[in-house]
Amino acid sequence: MSGKQGENGSGSDDLARFEVQDVCGCGVDHGPGGHPADDHEPEDEGGLKRTPLHALHLELGAKMVEFAGYEMPVQYPMGVLKEHLHTRAAAGLFDVSHMGQVVLRGRTCDVALALETLVPVDVAGIVEGRQRYGFFTNDQGGIEDDLMIANRGDHLFVVVNAACKDADVARMRAELEPGVVVKLLDNRALLALQGPGAADALAKLNPAVREMRFMDVATLELAGAECWISRSGYTGEDGFEISVPDAAAETLARALLTIDAVEPIGLGARDSLRLEAGLCLYGHDIDADTSPIEAALVWAIQKVRRPGGARAGGYPGAERIAGDLAEGVARKRVGVRPEGRAPMREGIQLFAGETGGEPVGIVTSGGFGPTLGAPVAMGYVPAALSKAGTQIFGEVRGKRLAVEVVSLPFVPAGFKR
Amino acid sequence: MKFTEEHEWLLEEDDGIVTVGITAHAAEQLGDVVFVELPDVGATVSKDDEVVVIESVKAASDILAPIDGEIVEVNESIVAEPGKVNEDPEGEAWFFKVRVEADDMAVMDDYMDEAAYKKFVG
Lengths: 417, 122
Description:
The structure holds 2 protein chains of 2 kinds. By secondary structure, chain A is α+β, with helices and mostly antiparallel strands.
């Protein structure tokens, strides 16, 4: 017994093993004192947090904006439109270090089964080396955040949204501890390399990445650092998300940027890419009032967790979600294609007819889709109007403009399954 | 050519016609322009009316009429190819031409010349 106090103050014998393990999960060899404090998300004068790639972004000429408490690159000199098209054609490198990286280790219980009390996802069925999309729910069956869950052998690795990460960690600590150790990593950056050229580019640093299929996870060395790699992303393209120790992040980013196909891409293009891919943005397309069934995310609730399944229910709001599954929902998330050129952005009201009537729905994210060269949007409409091909109207600056309800995604995914 | 603090340029042509567009500085700040909605030819506009809607990939902006007058021509080519606004904002990508009465032309004197505008945008 080491006598070390756990994060929740308990003194379980099982804690001893964390003494010899890499407790902080950073993958960098260091003494018991941990990382020097200045390695941890430095802040600028305005209190905004910076990622380990901050200096590199400035060197590359990025336009920096505030996003979820971080100073992040929204675009580089190439501009959002070309960055978007470059990612669809070759490979784009994104800094997504603002997202929360959390390690969950079972101390006295099965960590996968424990996490299943918070998400309607088959976590126990994620085999080692695989990853799955999921979401936290609340008692009303609304979505508290969406996340990726990876089985990395002796622990689960989850990635959550930047704006939600403190709440997510608090939720997991409150509900899962003391049986599970919940550790928010503060010493790893997260890079995403996305696009049809991503695999060839990353293979230059480690050919083993070619063996990975969509949603595989692996621990591999890249540019001299131990990286946790998943073949996934949020652009609809083939690609990788790479968790890298802070200290090695810039070296890795520079190594990738020396490859011809790779260009740095900002959050502006990341948003238009995920919109074209029909992927939900938390706080916009899904939120605490949206059920996963309304959001057309029923595919992410595996049979084993649905009514009649071996591990049905047992997560917040399971009754509401079971009801939605059985009886259907009044409103649904759909794709919307405006017929003209005018972009329809978040908040645009949707109407059943060209004149009169109350709004029947709303656009939750929308803009211009560079790949299609046309406006695209997602929003919620009554179930009766959710069938592809239905014509409805969006009101832009007082004018009702025709839009067509369409199937998502707008741009087919390029995943390597 | 004259410049407004709202980043429009105005060029007085013959016969009291003024051509209006947005400055290179504004085009760069907006980013990639993907949509332009122009006023109707024949419309009468007053200074500070919202006459043009311009949308970039990320945001929508209004352009206010910098002068009173009647719209006599609009540049349909930027409606078809909004990207021209980024490529040649102070040349080919003009927005509209407005016929201005002699009395109303005086407002041109209030606007900045090129040197003053350059100083203004720093």
